[in-house]
Every structure is written in C-alpha cells, then in structure tokens.
Amino acid sequence: MENTANAEKTGLTALTAINIAKVLTIVLLLIYSFVFGIQDFRQVIYLCLHVSYCLWWLLEQWLFPQRRQIFSEPVGIGGLILSLLFVGAFYSLPGYLAFTNPVPLSAIATAVALPLYIFGTLINATADIQKLTAKQYGAELVRDDIWRFSRNINYFGDLLRYLSFAVVAGSVWAYLVPAVILIIYLQRVSQKEQSMSVKYTNYADYQKSSSRLIPFVW
Q: Which keywords describe this protein according to UniProt (predicted)?
C-alpha cells in the first residue's frame, strides 16, 4: 500500500515511463551514429527502422487519445528507472550491435528485414486501430477481421518488428531482445487468456477458431 501511495505521488504512469524510455532509445541510437559513424546501409536502415518505430509509438497516442489509457497504472521513480534501463537501454542493444558491425549488410538480410518490419508494423497498427475503433462503438470481444487470425495479433506484429531489428544488426546477441520480449508476451498472453475467459462467455468459441499468438501455427 505504501509503495502504491508513493507511486501515485510522483504522478508517473507506466505509459509515461515507457514514453520517456522510447525517447531515450532514440537518443542512444543517435549517439551511436555520432560515436561509431555511418559505415554502411546497415546503420542507415537500422536507424530509419528503429527511430521510426519509436516515433510512431509516441505519435499513435496523439492520433488516438484512447491509447493513453494503456499502462495507466502509477509507477514510482523505481519504475521509471526500470523502464529506462529495460525499454530504453536494453531495447537499443541491436542498434549498438548494428553500429559496431563492420560487415556490410547483405542483400538477403535486407530482403528479410524490410518485409518483417513493414508487415509487423502494418499488423500491429491495424490490430490496435481496429480494437480502438470497435471499443468506441461499444463492441465487447473483438474477434473479426485481423483479430480472427490470432487472439494476440498485435503482439505477433510487434515481434516481427523486433526480429527485423535483430536481422539488420547482424549479430546473434541482437536476438536477445526479441527473445526476452517473446517471454514477456507469453506471460501476458497466459494472463489475458485467464481474464478473458472469465469476462466473455463466448471466449471459448474464439479460442477454438483462432490461433493463440502466431496465425495458423499456434
């Protein structure tokens, strides 16, 4: 109770902490570009992809104010520091690896990374916009259109995007980030499945007709 009260006094929400962390990621990527320089299209492409993703995260909350309702729980200074270290610094690891990788980016890696990023972004944004619009018009369980393919299609799109960063980075260590994000999402999926089953009587039917995370696979 005391920790919650202290968190509320700071006026910080989890979303605010994440937003600040996203700005930190952009700053770190720009620092990498100045410190290590632009040697190849690897660095150019990585900078474009990851910075545009962070900017879209921030822009989406302005375009769709309902997005500000996510991660609305209060956090204290400790929560802010954790977000800066994890979402801000750790998520920029593939960027550091991309800027310190002297090997030119191959055509194959480019051909893999760009579709991953483009489709990941389209899937994630489409899922978020559809759910926000449906909720505005009083819908309860959103299970049609893009959500008919996966009950967590937004998470799937986000994972594709982070995989694209790892591909461009060109280091096996870069895959630590999407791997950790996958673990976090699996935990959220498990919690969501339990709460949604209680909240919606038709959720069991939705489970039978859709994949859990990866469309047509699982």
A: Membrane, Transmembrane, Transmembrane helix
What residue has token string 């204290």? 76
Residue 158 and residue 181 in contact, taking contact as beta carbons nearer than 8 Å: yes
Show the tokens assigned to 167.
């591909």
pTM as predicted: 0.91
CB of 98 within 8 A of CB of 43? yes
Q: Which two tokens stand for residue 49?
A: 């992809």
Nearest to 147 by CA among 164, 160, 136, 133: 133
For 110-175, the DSSP string reads HHHHHHHHHHHHHHHHHHHHHHHHHHHTT--S--SGGGGTBTTHHHHHHHHHHHHHHHHHT-GGGG
Per-residue pLDDT reduced to its tens digit, 172-218 = 999 999 999 999 999 999 999 999 999 998 999 999 999 999 999 99
Residue 69 to residue 15: CA distance in whole angstroms = 8
More confident residue, 141 or 9: 141
pLDDT (average), residues 68-97 = 93
CA pair distance 181, 160, nearest whole angstrom: 11
